[in-house]
Amino acid sequence: MSTSDGAARRPRRPARLDQQQAESLPGGIDPAVRSEVAHTTAGAIVRHGRTGADDPELVERLVRLVEAEGLDVVAAMWADSPSGTLPGALWRLYVLREWVRRDPGTVAERYRLGLAAAPVHDAVAGVASPPGPDEVRDVADAVLSGVYTGDLAVALERGAAFCRVLATGAAFDADYLETSDDRAAHQLTRGASSLVRTAEELEEAAALWRVEKLD
Question: How large is the C-alpha radius of gyration of the chain?
Answer without folding.
Answer: 18
